[in-house]
Design brief:
Blueprint: E1 53-56, E2 62-66, H1 75-85, E3 90-94, H2 113-124, E4 130-135, H3 137-148, E5 155-159, H4 165-182, H5 186-195, H6 203-215, H7 226-234, H8 249-259, H9 267-272, E6 277-282, H10 290-300, E7 304-307, H11 314-317, H12 319-332
Helix pairs in contact: 2-3, 4-5, 4-6
Length: 333
């Protein structure tokens, strides 16, 4: 089976700075899964919100997936995880404005948190027991939403979400440096040295850093499980599969320009809302800083799940353990 490059945080950000590749020189191959048995059909998307949205299952609670990026989409989660998660309750997936399948449908996006909150308000309308599954950048959306909407009384599950973006960027550079030095790759070590001379608040610094993390394999487990490989093969013909590696640069540039999101440290938000937060993180996700993990362990205690053998896309890398963790959230929530 071909290797599939999957991530949700800024996959194609080299283009944001005017280059089609990060300074790391070597392009990252992206392949489609091989054809596999026909997966379960996706429901027809709902268009009333002027956003791509689909619902799986019924009952309570309702899981609302907040995808990463900014600029990525919910396709990978939808194709792999929406159906099995629907055994625990209703599942709603949607793509934010300017991203994925909403790119051509939604009104011209402003790429601000308040715009994202307004759309989330509409998605949540009529949902009695919402559980926000906030993956990667979706965690920033969820934590800021809790700050902005004190009337929201649902649960938030952070899923491999950076808490301090400066810490994550520094972690990516350090982990890539270790990868390059182990390979005696002096060229790419030199590129990392060049990053050190850039403005750490700039979009170029963030974009190149995320792209290095992708090319270094930091988003992937060191060894993919047989279950994960089989799952990806099975969903290869899912209607969402063409969006697995699709990242739009507009939301990255927009959220960076409007919100300076790569400078955010959300530690105080975690502390303020710790009583209603859970977290499920892959132990092998090497873009998440140890400082973030320590904070989550200290604030959440037994509500922080660390999943071995899983990296950034924990719901694919170790889906059975992910689903068990979410079941525990519901049982004890």
């Amino acid at each position: 089976m071909k290797r599939i490059v999957l991530s949700c945080a800024c996959l194609a950000l080299a283009s944001c700075s005017g280059s089609t590749q990060p300074p790391s020189a070597d392009p990252v191959a992206s392949a489609s899964p091989e054809v596999s048995p026909e997966p379960e059909a996706a429901p027809a998307p709902e268009t009333a919100l002027d956003l791509y949205r689909a619902t799986y299952g019924d009952g309570t609670p309702t899981f609302v997936f907040l995808h990463g990026g900014p600029g990525y989409n919910s396709a990978l989660f939808e194709a792999t995880t929406a159906h099995p998660l629907a055994e625990l309750g209703e599942v709603v997936v949607y793509d934010r404005r300017g991203a994925g399948r909403s790119a051509e449908q939604a009104d011209a996006p402003a790429f601000t948190f308040e715009e994202a909150f307004a759309d989330l308000d509409r998605v949540l309308e009529g949902i009695a027991q919402p559980v926000l599954l906030a993956h990667s950048f979706g965690g920033a959306v969820a934590l800021r939403y809790l700050d902005a909407r004190p009337e929201f009384h649902g649960t938030v599950v952070l899923v491999n979400a950076p808490i301090s973006y400066p810490r994550s960027l520094a972690t990516i550079i350090a982990n890539c440096r270790a990868v390059y030095e182990a390979k005696d790759d002096t060229k790419n070590v030199g590129y990392l040295d060049q990053l050190g001379a850039m403005d750490p608040a700039s979009s170029q610094y963030a974009g190149f850093t995320f792209a290095h993390g992708l090319s270094c394999g930091l988003y992937q487990p060191k060894v993919a499980s047989e279950n994960a490989e089989a799952l990806l093969q099975r969903v290869g013909t899912h209607p969402a599969a063409t969006f697995f590696s699709d990242t739009k640069p507009g939301p990255f540039l927009g959220f960076h320009a409007q919100e300076q999101y790569t400078t955010l440290d959300l530690s105080d938000s975690v502390k303020r809302h710790a009583g209603r937060l859970w977290a499920v993180y892959g132990e092998e996700d090497r873009i998440i800083s140890e400082g973030d993990r320590v904070l989550l362990r200290e604030e959440l205690g037994s509500r922080f799940f660390a999943i071995p053998g899983a990296a950034h896309n924990v719901f694919v890398d170790a889906q059975p353990r992910f689903l068990e963790s979410i079941a525990a959230v519901i049982e004890h929530g």
